[in-house]
Amino acid sequence: MDFELNAEQRAWQSKAREFAEEEIRPLSLAREAVADPVKTFDWEIIKKGSRLGFRTAVVPREWGGHGIDYVTQALVMSELARADSAISKTFSQCWKFSHRIARACTPDQRDRFLTPFLEDDTFLIGGASTEPNAGSDNRLQPENDPRAGLKLRAERQGDDWLLNGDKCFIANGSVAKLFFISTRTNPEVKLREGNTVFLLPRSTPGFRHAKVFNKAGWRFYQNAELILENVRLPHANVVGEVNGGLKTRTRGSLDFSDFELAANALGNCDAAVGSAMQYVRQDGLASQQRVQLQLAEMHMLTEALRAYVMRVAWEMDAQMRESANVGLVMNFARDVSQRVAVLNMEIHGGGAQMHAHSDKLVRDTIIWTHLAGDSVQRMKSVRRLLR
Q1: Do 209 and 298 belong together in one domain?
Q2: Are residues 370 and 279 located together in one domain of the fold?
Q3: Is residue 238 within a helix (H) or strand (E), and if so which, with residue range?
């Protein structure tokens, strides 16, 4: 097998590494230390990264983006995450939805939303699905139970739709300018048959964000509660078909979500290994057998994850749709990233001694415990294996 990167891939990797080291790393711990979760966010780093293409990287070239492949996406996400995984996720969160605008939306919708996205360095995108009483059952729906899943209602009134309800834990919820919002348009049938997705601009009357959640990890990354009170949207903002919302979530977009999280976790592991190696050298711990074993395990697990992530990226570029690896790699990434971060903390004093960077890496990896529901991921992956 040929593991050599091409010139474009190396260029993007180098650009991401340089930006991470020179721009993200110097501010990462300072943003992390801000007590108010709303104020952890920094627009300047987003605008700087956007000007380098990190916000619009995956928009197809024919629509004005960079159209980078999945291998390149893995390289960029992991390099940015090595400096701060929450900032990396803020950029890549836009990727799945900018893809969706380009591929699933009408020409009118692309003109209205993709064009300003490409032109505005502060134009972030979010997806609004999770609700206080509807989470994993939105992704793996119980059969023939109309009570399961989304509750936010969308009712048609002529050429408009009236939306009422709320969402929670929504990524980029307090900072995005556009949301793909999932609604229930027929509450009498199961979710798969009564779900519609709308394009919801932040400026729409009746729409606002409320609480910004104060998380242990990923503190830069904004997760917020969304409130919709008699929000009126034109029928022209329906994505795909009425009651066909789940069809707009193509296999590719679902796979990207899992792949994205695994690539990000790889960057977190690289940061932990680098941190541990630096500490061991500075404090003269290299001769201690316990430390040697810990470093060896960290390196082994990180390289295993790297190989798996890049294998999945290659499979996605090759459109190997029958593979279950994209779901399994997310689960593996969770286990590996948490183990590597804890080993790094142990080398730094086992948590008894405070060390801002190693503590941050542990708290960031805690987020993987609940990202997209790990049990759901396993069930989805096993279904592919059993076909």
Answers
A1: no
A2: yes
A3: strand 238-239
